[in-house]
Write a structure and sequence with these properties.
The structure holds two protein chains of two kinds.
Chain A lengths: L1 H4 L5 H13 L13 H36 L4 H15 L2 H15 L20 H30 L2 H8 L4 H14 L3 H12 L3 H6 L5 H10 L3 H29 L1 H4 L3
Chain B lengths: L32 E6 L16 H10 L4 E4 L2 E4 L2 E6 L5 E6 L13 H13 L17 E4 L2 E5 L7 H5 L22 E6 L4 E6 L15 E6 L3 H9 L5 E2 L5 H5 L6 E4 L7 E7 L9 H10 L2 H7 L6 E2 L22 H10 L6 E6 L6 H14 L3 E6 L2 H4 L3 H5 L3 E6 L4 H8 L14 H13 L3 H18 L2 E7 L3 E4 L48
Parallel strand pairs in B: 1-10, 1-11, 15-16
Antiparallel strand pairs in B: 2-3, 4-5, 5-7, 6-7, 8-9, 9-10, 11-19, 12-19, 13-17, 13-18, 14-18
Classes of the chains: A mainly alpha, B alpha+beta.
Amino acid sequence: MRAELGLDRPAVIRYLDWLGHVVRGDFGVSYASGRPVADVVADRFGNSLVLGLAALAVLVPLAVGLGLWTGLRAGRRGDRLVSGTALGLAAVPEFVTGAVLMLVFAGGLGWLPAVSLLGAGQGPLDEPAVLVLPVLTLVSVCLAQNLRLVRAGVAEAARSEAVEAARLNGVPERRVALRLVLPAGLGPAVPMLARSATYLLGGALVAESLFGYPGLAALLVDATASRDVPVVQAVALLGAALAVTANLAADLAVPLLDPVQRHPR
Amino acid sequence: MGIAAGGALAACGGGGEEPAATEASATPRKGGKLRAAFIGGSAESTDPTLAANVGIDYVRARLVWDTLGELDGGKAVWRLAESVEPNADATKWTVRVRQGVTFSDGRQLTAKDVLFSLRTLVEKRSPQGGFITHLDLKNARAKDARTVELPLTMPDGFFDLALAHSMFVFPDGTKDLTKAVGSGPYTLKKWQAGRSGILVPRADYWDGDNGGPYLDELELVSVTDAAARLSGLKSGQFGYAGGLGLTAVRTERGNDALRIELPPKDLWVDLTLTMNRGLKPFTDERVVRAVKLALDRESLVRTVTLGQGEAGNDLVGAHQPYFDTGIAQTAHDPEQAKKLLSEAGADGLAVTIRTSNYDYGTEESAAAAVPMLAKAGIKASLDKVPAADYYSDFKTILGTPLQTAAYHPNPLPLMIRTYYGSTAPFPLTGTKDAAQADPLIAAMNRATGEKERAARVADVQEYLHEHGGDALFARVPTVSGAAAATHGVKPRGYADYPSRAVAAPPPGWALVRRPPRSRGCGPNSAWTGPR
């Protein structure tokens, strides 16, 4: 068995061997199921991707919109209400938020499924209802930190000399907010959004297991518990690739938003 | 071994059908769809030789492939076998194969199919195949179309119990086992690992006269998280869910929308503190006795099993046919324990309990035992190990003087062979007392005839109760739930246990680990023995 699994060879050689295969797109075979790792991971990654993108599609407009709105009225009643609510939601752990949502929308009202069931051969897009509760759970967790960063950026930008000058020159407030304040205010929030994207796309464990959603994080836990090393390696690699990509995208996006960085003196 | 494990899995009643009846009508009603959730995992497969490794696979397998026989209340009930008889010294067993049984592709069931299936289950090292490794495969033969002769390499008077233990039958010469057809009441229409399987009934099911299959469609859904299975049941997504965890018994009390169901007691899991009789301080019988007396079993039942379990009497397999009910219950007597320790010169004894939360109640009971042992003057400490690592190192297990264990139900004589004596694959209590235990176990293995079998099993139990290293203090049920409208789903066989990666155990055996309990389903087996 040791020879069959190649455990009689030094770790470095085994690692290089694995790396060599990965470069050629071969992630090996799962110890637990005997299926090719690429198949196992691809299926789950697809599901996590759909869930993550759906969550991002809700999160980004909400965080940016509310961040702008609250940033422009920093310290006033509307800001305190929205920020307070978002922080309150963020302070509640995911599994509590998810359980409460489940209790209300699945148990009480019966509008949405409690378990995100996907039948054989079905993808999450065939049953979009299964995405609603996990998405709400994830958004409630990620919203506050993103919103607060946008708000802080916006509030600071709103006090800048450029904005004051624009206002004094009679530029309409709407134009000031969208053209000057928002791009400058978004800068600091973009890396945070990238981090949220990594978290959401790479599989959000608590939400996935709470709703029984067949995603990547649930696979990782399963594979770890069964010491299914090839699967763990592939998922870890994928997670790392996602993190690098998202951060790179964020770093590239910041200069696009900020004229000062785009035109170095 | 086990195919482990504790009931609650419900691979359905008699003919493997799950009648959708209402309580009012005592007779099941035909028609309808049932969606049932069970624990799945990354190892899911449609290969019958792997079916005993994952909860949902086992349930599906029992519906698709009929078995030679099944165990009902610990007794063999023959299905594809019509009869199973030993010769005089139990060295050769003859299986008479049932006539008029067809596979779902229309082929007739013959003796060759039975032989091929048994051979494959052994050669592929399936858990249930581990119980028949002494089958002499070279000389086993299909004597005629309906008779299989199974010579053994050693006498075994209990071979029928092994043959009744989840021996799935598929056609002779099946090349791709993942596509093997069966002779059960349902066929698999659609399946995806980790998602679900859709089963449809067969019109030509051989046992249809008994009523089944009742359902128009049965969907088995793979859900890893126990809490999610319960949520789905409560919200009406599932008509039935297995492996719910003991807390559900309390939280769902008074919920009219569902019924919590516990399996019969012979399918409960045994929780034990295992002392290795070959290692100090348990080489001294008085110390072993003292630990057994120190445990307050009633209190452990109240706390660890939430009052749902029952006290154990240091013996595996309670409520099974051969269980010796005449043996007095071990008392809770810390004073006597103290006295014994002092006689043994073990005042102020310090011990370490190796444990992990790999199974329901193991870590909790170890923690609860510490103050009980303290009352008897034993200073105990815990060595907590990650669940996935607990069984990965077999040498450590056999070299640990004191540890927790959860034995999942199997036919009692087979459990004895699995855990005790020098030929046991999992001798957690050590093999130092082989000189006394082995002859008793050998006599048990040779016994034929009901009276003789009962007497020889009783001999072994008497010995184990007095001298064995297991302080088996409690028994725990597995838990499943049915929606108010779902009836007739019965726990059958031994499956409720997700098992995982295979380590490298003694020859012919494998350990199968389960994931941490939080994700599992209630009491689950730590290992499924023979591979």
